[in-house]
Write the structure tokens for this entry.
Amino acid sequence: MKKSYLGVLLIVAAAVVAYLIWSQKEARSEQEVPVVVEESGPVFVPDPKTKYLKIPEQATFGEFMTEQGVDPAVTAAIYEVALTNYDLALVRVGRRLDLQYDDAQDLIKLSYDIDDQKQLAVYKEEGLWKAKVQAIEYKITNKLSQGTIDSSLYEAALAAGLDEGLVIEMAEAFGSTIDFSMDVKSGDSFKVLYEARERDAMPAKPGRVLAARYINDGQSYFIYLWTDDKGKDAYYDEQGRAALKRFLRAPVAFRYISSGYTNNPRYVGGQYQRFTANHLAIDYAAAQGTPIRAVGDGRVSFAGWKNGYGNVVTIRHDSTYSTTYGHMSKILVKNGQAVGQNQTIGLVGSTGFSTGPHVHFEMIKNGVKVNPLKEIQPPSAPLSGEDLVTFNKQREVYQTELDK
Ligand SMILES: [Zn+2]
């Protein structure tokens, strides 16, 4: 009697400690108590029979379960039954894994976050283990954030308390309009409407960017999320035209130029150049090995070594345009291969006439090298019919929020 009471007490204590560790990591420094009470908000009381855990570093699933005191035979049974849904050998460091026990302290359920949308649940039903994948439940509220740019969008966004993933998503949505490494001016500003999410009454990673306005050099640009009837999300401008046009503005994704370099523009006057009479290209400085992406759909018309350019790829997009990407450390496409917009075609290097790792990026229009930053792209076709009607309704809702 006394022994089982002690056992329950230990489990409760372990759950509270585990929850404390988990909640601190989840919410960084803000939340330190296991029970969060907001004014008239939800209250999450941790279940004393559940251990709230995170996969630690360098642990296999089996080792982790043994560490938690689970019988290896039970671990094996869970692994087997889960396999058609998810291979638990692939558990990732830092992901949440909960273990739930019954009154007799027998394990009755395991839940594991496959990503931030889906969860694997392995549970005992009438003595048999069963498994399913289910959506993680979040409480979603729309939230508005804004900031003014001093040096980079990345810094301004983080200063405004935006999650890194959100900054990247917003920047990518503007990927055909603004090159955040080259076009950003001091005094530019942004406003972003996004899904703030809570899980078990604790702040979680935010969801999607719903709409945003970016004012670049006095000019306002907008993006609005719209989900088509097949459930596919994409961003559109205020007239219902796809935000991503024929070409992306930069051959290096924002997520790579942002991380690690947050102070200055990505080009440097002497070493890396903008478009000039002597240099009919844009040079993007980026770390060795950074992925280089095709700015638009097309077919590889050259992939190999060329004097000066080093390892170089040229993509023909249509009868008018082609683009060239020089100094690669590695080429990842073959001559004649079809490539899609945003597809990785090689890695940043310093081959050929180059003094440091960068991408030498050229745009050729009707045989003439043009400045890709100045090239005005034809707008994509707008949504039409019923799609445009539902898009406009959604856009108006978002616009009201953005105008606040
Ligand atoms: Zn160059």
